From TrEMBL, chains A, B, C:
InterPro entries registered for this protein in UniProt: Gly_transporter
Family per similarity comment: Belongs to the UPF0126 family.
Domain annotation Glycine transporter: ranges: 6-79, 93-166
Keywords attached to this entry: Cell membrane, Membrane, Transmembrane, Transmembrane helix
Transmembrane segments: 6-23, 30-52, 64-82, 89-111, 117-138, 150-168, 174-195
Chief place where the protein resides: membrane
Keyword Acyltransferase annotated: no
Highest taxon listed in the record's lineage: Bacteria
Name of the protein described by the UniProt record: Membrane protein
Length: 211, 211, 211
């Protein structure tokens, strides 16, 4: 399924760019940029493969992934040096695309190991979002994923759609295409119209204050 | 050992509630609450099983764990919406119970793989506290475990008690019951009388200031 | 290769000391100091072995590692209590030595599993720096590694040197000695003359501001 492989590498490049940009916002040096780019783009898949005992993990099995992530990071630095503006909307759309691909791949890898549906969804979401979460943790921010428009919810829906189609007698390529489109549409709609889920507010009352 | 299995699920529910409350204090949305609840309740066991190469990890082997964690999170949101107050003391006691169970289970799983005593204790402590530590890291706080009354020390003692009893010719259920009670008693005493270990203070002198 | 094993344990002790000092700067209690020391000294190797599926991980295989880390932490507390000053320069030199050893060991372990060169370098760097990165994350700081003089760059170079020598017909001990010396020299020069890589500055413009 070579178009899918190309999409996967595109997702890696996009997440590497988003990692490099965050590293730049924190004024990291060249090495910091590379590390954050690698973690953002390959962290989710590494966590998934390690927890699923799916060895060797994706970037050890195929070193093109590392190459793409490194090129994505270096390309970002060069781009910012040469031409100031980052096309934020273009980046958000590309990020949504990467998210969609990673979610479906994560679900697919989990299903291939016959895990329960709930675990397959978790693996899909983890593959899509964990890299970004680790990036934000290292950069000492509350992960954006928990504070923005609908993000991982799109992954949950897309993962469930894929699992449903996977069990039907449809062509595998079609299953992937529909599930990827589902994540993409939800995420792009959330960006366009600033859709978000209701929040769970709780006043910060420490136990000590009551004692 | 079905009463122990029930206790384990109770521990999952309790940690899911504590995760959901922390997520509420950070005003996360529904998805954020679920993710933090899942990480808090299943993170320790996932880390333990992955490092011990004990696959499939607990929540992939048995999807009741995920269900209980999700219900614990949703129940917390519903409870807070319906009736304001959280019974902080009740939560602390329940948390102590979950901690006790998780510590003994972690030690047990490690001993079943014939690891050295030191590694079995680390696995017990890790199972008990890692979920909460990851929760605090994601929520961008210095993990409470390092700043409160005796917490993980109770795990260390309970884990050692379990290892001692495990080697004796006592019934397995009794070993578990005594070790769980040990963690519970130490932790509850620490909460009741605000017991803490001495701290290691060190002024923050950066090397640069000396150069 | 017993002198290498001794060096490895020395690296564990040094990183345990650096972890204990950071824990002291955060006024943690005895347990917190031990946990941070263990994570700093054994975290990198644990991550490497888990991702490489190299089980049992190093400190389960050989419990001397845990003993050395615990003694390093307790020794640090005793030392600070007895005699105030920490010899910062001595610590930096020891840290550079630990970094050099860990990097070469990580690369070696990865090469033994016939991974691609890029993955072997990542494993070397990860073994050298991940413990410190996790330490900084738990202590809620942007990892120092991303903000200081040349640090992980020394690991990358040392790892590549080792991989090059490994393929030549040189004695294994010599390969290790040269690669360790490479990391050490680069890192000590960076400390001595405050060498750093250029930074990638990017103004923090959130997408919301443009919409």
């Amino acid at each position: 399924m070579s178009w899918f492989y190309a999409f996967d590498l595109f997702g890696v490049a996009v997440f590497a760019i988003s990692g490099a940009l965050m590293a730049g916002r924190k004024s990291m040096d060249l090495f910091g940029v590379l590390v954050i780019a690698l973690i953002t783009s390959l962290g989710g898949g590494t966590l998934r493969d390690t927890i699923l005992d799916n060895h060797p993990v994706v970037w050890i099995r195929d070193d093109l992934y590392i190459l793409v992530a490194v090129l994505g990071a270096l390309g970002t630095i060069a781009w910012v040096r040469l031409t100031r503006p980052i096309h934020e909307t273009g980046l958000l759309v590309a990020d949504a695309f990467g998210l969609a691909i990673f979610t479906v791949i994560g679900t697919q890898v989990a299903l291939a190991q016959s895990v329960p549906v709930s675990a397959a969804v978790i693996m899909g979401v983890m593959t899509g979002v964990a890299g970004g979460v680790i990036r934000d943790i290292i950069c000492n921010e509350i992960p954006l994923i928990f504070q923005r428009e609908i993000y991982a919810t799109a992954c949950i829906v897309g993962s469930l759609v894929y699992i449903g189609l996977y069990r039907l007698d449809t062509p595998a390529d079609l299953d992937v295409a529909i599930a990827v489109a589902t994540v993409l549409v939800i995420r792009l709609a959330a960006i366009r119209w600033h859709l978000g889920l209701p929040r769970f507010h709780l006043l910060d009352r420490k136990p000590a204050e009551k004692d």
